[in-house]
Amino acid sequence: MSRDLLIRILRAPDAVSRLSMSEWDTLVRQARAAGLLARLAYRLRKHGQIEVIPATVRWHFEAAETLADKQRLAVTWELQQIRDALDDLNIPLIVLKGAAYVAANLPAAEGRMFNDIDILVPRDRLEQAESSLMLSGWHPTHLSEYDKRYYRRWMHELPPLQHVQRDTVIDVHHAILPITARYHPDSGKLHSRAVAVDLLPGIQVLSSEDRILHSATHLFHDGELPHGLRDLTDLDLLLRDVSDEAEFWPRLIARAEELQLGRSLYYAVRYVRHFMDTPVPDSALRALSPLGPNPYTRALMDAIFKRVLMPAHASCNDAFTSSARLAAFIRAHWLRMPAHLLIPHLVHKAWLSVTPGDSAPKAA
């Protein structure tokens, strides 16, 4: 019965008062595996449940909160360094995903942990942006020549750039989906609606609709989902933050169709309601229905995503979890590349996986 323990506590934090020590142990392990220990700590504090946590357990949450707070300060400072590095290009610095939540001081920033900072620049300024960042200390990570070509020829971003002194990593995007992907959201349309951040001059974030759509697209086009539940809680917080705005849902659905992201939004809403009980108006559900798959595909996607979006912890697995993770991996690559490119790529990566050699920090 502990399989969905973390999800139940995220939905109803007051329930922690009834946990046994064994359940506390499982909860901490699941939250850590999902990258949600700090966010859970924030949620428990917000609901006045911190004092309920046993003393032998509480230090896990306090340490996670401390690390999240330090990361938030570090990300804010790092964004200013990136802005200064790109200042000579006279282009807007649009920040994506977790760093954008911090920059805009959104509820989704609370307890959000980071591996890297994602930014969006115009494709025709990509080479200049890379040169400016390299002059400021960011250089490509140690990828194979194959992976470097893969990024530059087919992907929607440069190979990751890591700072030589601080080890911070930047992903420089020119789009939100690969060039070879089945869907092609217009990056120019994302740029056109970006909004400035008051407290960080020179830095912009996507509009509220676009950052929700980008979060959904990233989640449901990614084949490896160790932090899928974390990203789903991002969507829950992003939606709750703006869903009371007049005509928000019609605007969001219209924007999804305009950007060819209707199917991603459909899945986002379907599973954020399933896992997080996010409130969605009936009118929005009716409008989203035509954007979804046929009943057979929907049943298959439920079998996959209701497993792979669980924390990557043994207590959350069932007999079909491994198969579901493999299916999600194959689906993501099928959406990312056509068969004539995908099959040689997977054969190459499979060959490398059984061939001794240097490991890369972030292979394609």
Notes on the structure:
With 364 residues, this protein is α/β, with parallel strands linked by helices. The chain has a single domain (5-353), classed as Beta Polymerase, domain 2, CATH 3.30.460. The protein has helices at 5-11, 21-33, 37-46, 55-85, 97-103, 126-135, 145-154, 187-192, 208-220, 228-242, 248-258, 262-276, 282-288, 295-308, 321-336, 339-353; strands at 93-96, 117-120, 138-140, 161-163, 169-173, 195-196, 203-205. Strands 3-4-5-2-1-7-6 form a 7-stranded mixed β-sheet. β4 (161-163) and β5 (169-173) form a beta hairpin. α9 packs antiparallel against α10 (228-242) and α14 (295-308) crosses α15. It starts with a helix and ends in an 11-residue tail after the last helix.
Task: Present the secondary structure layout.
Blueprint: H1 5-11, H2 21-33, H3 37-46, H4 55-85, E1 93-96, H5 97-103, E2 117-120, H6 126-135, E3 138-140, H7 145-154, E4 161-163, E5 169-173, H8 187-192, E6 195-196, E7 203-205, H9 208-220, H10 228-242, H11 248-258, H12 262-276, H13 282-288, H14 295-308, H15 321-336, H16 339-353
Parallel strand pairs: 1-7, 2-5
Antiparallel strand pairs: 1-2, 3-4, 4-5, 6-7
Helix pairs in contact: 3-4, 9-10, 9-11, 9-12, 10-12, 11-12, 14-15
Offer a concise description of the structure.
Helices cover 55% and strands 7% of the residues. With 364 residues, it is of the alpha/beta class.
